[in-house]
Amino acid sequence: MKGRTKESTTEAVPYRDLTIANQHGMHARPAALFIKTAARFDAEITIEKDDTRISGKSIMGLLTMELYQGAKMRVYAEGPDAEEALDALAELVRNKFDEE
Amino acid sequence: MALTVTDFFEEGRDPFELEVVCGETHLGRVIKEPAINRPGLALTGFFQYFANLRIQVMGLAELTYLKHLPDDETRSARLAQLFEQRIPCVVLTRNRHAPPELLAQAESYRVPVLKTPMITNRFINRATLLMEDLSAPRRKFQGTMLDIKGMGVLIEGQPGIGKSETALALIERGHSLISDDLTLLRRDNLGTVVGSADEVTRYHMEIRGLGIIHVPSLFGVASMRREMRLDLVIRLATFDEHADYDRTGMRSETVSLLGADIPLLTIPVAPGRDIAHVVEVAALNQKLKQLGHDAAKELDEKLMRALERKRRQ
Q1: Considering A10, A14, A21, A27, which one is annotated as catalytic?
Q2: Mind listing the pLDDT tens digit for each residue in A5-50?
Q3: CATH (domain of B229)
Q4: Pair (B168, B83) in one structural domain
């Protein structure tokens, strides 16, 4: 959903720019791992790529984002444990989802 | 639990029209090998590899051979040798009369003798199946079992989570109930786990707020099934936001029941979720997997090919 309120709220929301590092990209297993990690936190996770935003808890959303190796995404976290959530997700992506 | 001649006699009395010829007080003998042997060679005095732990069946051939032995003493001596081997029991087929020496030796070695009107071959086949069934590993399992479009699905979960209500909704959708709340499982000789209901409570289920209902009276005979192969266990769990549910269906968990690994799915129960519908789809999806079509895996392969193309661009 787009709108002024949403846009302006996003300004203050912490985010990280992450680059997909694993060879096969964001396929089912990494996506499940990403969502599982996101679900550990109370923070609302949102993923943005090429002007598309999806919930970080939607597996079908994540699979349609075309997150191949080298692709970039911006991950937002909104909530009390936002920083911890972003750290955990960033680490997961950096570690190539333990795939290689 | 050891299989005794009593167990065999009780279960075989009706289907095989079994009768006790002699030795009713010795029916407690144990059948250590649940199988049949024809003691032809033993009657000639050859005892190497004699299968003495099995039920000994005497048909036309054995009894005619005994009749052709030269005299009563020889017959007695040969039969004594046979009974010395601690055999569990003797079954005479075609309702043949036993020679008096056989009954005398059976009595002195405390071995029961039974008879059946069946012909030997048919009796051996049917009795073997019955004994395999009687000695199959068994256990009781707290859960409700249904036949969902040819798939045996066992639903487990904490009391009050809605196993019976889910089953009721599935029965209304045209599926059949095998057992409510307590399922008897046994593993047959092919390794298949089969579920059935307790004899007494079969056809009944308990719904909170309604009490006990008789399923076929309400939903017709098609709503019940006596037994069913177990294909899938579904564990209903209270929805927990932070719990680790399978989001792709690629995890393939199993639960070990009677030594067999049965596919296991955990389904979170939350207000507003139509659990019966989810269970129905889970059963059909498992059927697809058994047929070699794994939707999650196939989507993943397609996705990986698409990501690879994008990466190369």
Answers
A1: A27
A2: 444 454 579 999 999 999 999 999 999 999 989 988 999 999 999 9
A3: 3.40.50.300
A4: no
Structure tokens at A72: 């970039």
Q: What residue numbers bound the domain in which B174 lies? A: 138-300
* Neighbour-count burial of B106, counting CB atoms closer than 10 A to its CB (0-12 exposed, 13-18 middle, 19+ buried): buried
Domain final position from B135, B154, B177: B135
Calculate how close chain A gets to B253, using CA atoms only, in Å: 15
Task: Tell me if A68 and B303 make a contact (CB, 8 A cut-off).
Answer: no
Full 3-state SS string of B35-86? CEECCHHHHCCCCCCCCCCCEEEECHHHHHHHHHCCCHHHHHHHHHHHHHCC
Q: Are A55 and A39 in contact, with CB atoms under 8 Å apart?
A: no
Domain tally, chain B: 2
Q: Is the pTM of this model over 0.80?
A: no
Collect the ranges in chain B with pLDDT lower than 50: none
User: What would the pLDDT profile of B92-111 be if each residue is shown by its tens digit?
Assistant: 999 999 999 999 999 999 99
- Model pLDDT for residues B201-259, shown as the tens digit of each residue: 899 998 888 899 999 999 999 999 999 999 999 999 998 877 778 888 877 899 999 99
CB contacts, 8 Å: B304 with chain A = 24-25, 27
Provide the residue type at B261 as one letter.
D
B193 and B274 housed in the same domain? yes
Quote ipTM for the complex: 0.77
Question: Could you tell me if B123 and B146 lie in one domain?
Answer: no
The Cβ of residue B233 has, within 10 Å, a number of other Cβ atoms equal to: 23
What is the rounded CA–CA span in Å between residue B34 and residue B15?
18
Distance from CA of B169 to the nearest CA of A (A): 29
Does the active-site annotation cover A27?
yes
Q: Which residue of A has its CA nearest to B307?
A: A68
Query: Does the distance separating the beta carbons of A25 and B247 come in below 8 Å?
Result: no
pLDDT of residue A66: 92
Q: Which residues of B touch A58 (CB under 8 A)?
A: none
**Chain B residues with CB inside 8 Å of A29's CB?**
248, 250, 300
**How close does chain A come to B143, measured CA to CA in Å?**
29
